[in-house]
Design brief:
This protein is an all-alpha fold. It has two domains: 69 residues, no CATH class; 297 residues, Mitochondrial carrier fold (Alpha/alpha barrel), CATH 1.50.40. The chain contains 14 helices and two strands. It has a two-stranded parallel sheet with strand order 1-2. The radius of gyration is 33 Å and the shape is elongated.
Length: 410
């Protein structure tokens, strides 16, 4: 029991005096919650989310990854001072480069119309620019296939062209090359992504994973059938301009001359041999690339793909593309010889080409140069294509499960 003697009464009076003094102090000064520290400009800046701060930083400091601010969308509880402190970033982001989303066109949902449009644009850049760049190599290769007596080797072929046509002659036919392969690249990459998803959905998650190589082969073959219809007219004009000096200076005068000579349907005379060249080439290009990149990440690279930097992933894309390109050149070379022969010789048939070139010549004529050209070309195409995908905020190609399996795991 508590005793209520003189000392207790004195304590009670002291408490009343203290309360009176506090009341007078609060009446003469601005109210401020005792538990809330003063809100300064520094505290407000630290309360911003990462995304808010990124908008104030130049783009050249951005990295390809980003983290969402922990305070975004939350009301600030003034009774909890810890909310005013900036959360410490993860260990992999404690560096000078400030994380920011690499999505200049906004968030692109996978397998949406915008996704396929982005893949189509990446295909235009990857195929059109690379084929135009290697026009001199393609010019020598086509002439070696058509006239092996005059163009005996790669070095002598360049020498003959330089002597007869000058430096400008090395880029003869670059316009139909650029237009034709840009159209082909748009259909090739855009429809490949579409058909890969389409066939994966038909197969279902289990079979899409089990038979993923067949899905890659079927998707790439379906895409190439469409892509070659877009390429064929420009390919016919290109070969004629490159292998018949004096026929035309380029696309502007070459296309009307070709139609006048062969008719409009003559532009598609080489379509079947083109399918014979390009469909095996593209099937090998996509299926081997997907498989090689997957093997790189599985056996040669010690960390998962999503933990590798974007620049490292692009390096893997180029390396995988180069190896795939060498395989593509070997598989598609006989048909490439047929296309060059048929587009150069008026009224010629496949039988005529086989009779003139022979089986050995069909498989080997111009092959070393084409291996160098197609290997570099394919590696550069995958590098450019995946670089564009990274630029718009999409993941690089390869090293992941098929689309149906990914969606089933979510």
């Amino acid at each position: 029991m508590r005793s209520w003697g003189p000392m207790a009464e004195k304590d009670k009076k002291d408490e009343e005096v203290i309360k009176t003094m506090m009341s007078r102090s609060e009446a003469n000064s601005p109210r401020r919650p005792i538990s809330t520290p003063p809100i300064s400009l520094c505290n407000l800046l630290m309360a911003f989310s990462d995304n808010s701060r990124q908008s104030l930083i130049p783009n050249f400091l951005y990295s390809s990854s980003s983290t969402t601010g922990l305070l975004m969308g939350k009301s600030i509880n003034h009774s909890n001072p810890s909310l005013f402190t900036s959360p410490s970033p993860p260990k992999d982001q404690q560096n000078f480069v400030i994380p920011s989303p690499s999505e200049p066109f906004g968030k692109i949902e996978m397998y949406s119309p915008r996704f396929y449009a982005a893949c189509t644009a990446g295909g235009i850049l990857s195929c059109g620019l690379t084929h135009m760049t290697v026009t001199p190599l393609d010019l020598v290769k086509c002439n070696m296939q058509i006239d092996p007596v005059k163009y005996k080797s790669i070095s002598s072929g360049f020498g003959v062209l330089l002597k007869e046509q000058g430096v400008r002659g090395f880029f003869r036919g670059w316009v139909p090359t650029l237009l034709g392969y840009s159209a082909q690249g748009a259909c090739k990459f855009g429809f490949y992504e579409f058909f890969k998803k389409y066939y994966s959905d038909i197969a279902g998650p289990e079979y899409a994973t089990k038979y993923k190589t067949l899905i890659y082969l079927a998707g790439s073959a379906s895409a190439e059938i469409i892509a070659d219809v877009a390429l064929c007219p420009m390919e016919a004009v290109k070969v004629r301009v490159q292998t018949q000096p004096g026929f035309a200076r380029g696309l502007g005068d070459g296309l009307p001359k070709f139609i006048k000579s062969e008719g409009a349907l003559g532009l598609y005379k080489g379509l079947v041999p083109l399918w014979g060249r390009q469909i095996p080439y593209t099937m090998m290009k996509f299926a081997s690339f997907e498989t090689i990149v997957e093997m790189f990440y599985k056996y040669a690279i010690p960390q998962p793909k999503n933990e590798c930097s974007k620049s490292f992933q692009l390096g893997v894309s180029f390396a995988g593309g180069y190896v795939a390109g060498v395989l593509c050149a070997i598989v598609s070379h006989p048909a490439d010889n047929l296309v060059s022969f048929l587009n150069n010789a008026k009224g010629a048939s496949v039988g005529d080409a086989v009779k003139k070139l022979g089986l050995w010549g069909l498989f080997t004529r111009g092959l070393p140069l084409r291996i160098v050209m197609i290997g570099t070309l394919t590696g550069a195409q995958w590098g450019i294509y995946d670089a564009f995908k990274v630029f718009v905020g999409l993941p690089t190609t390869g090293g992941a499960a098929p689309p149906a399996a990914i969606e089933a795991a979510k």
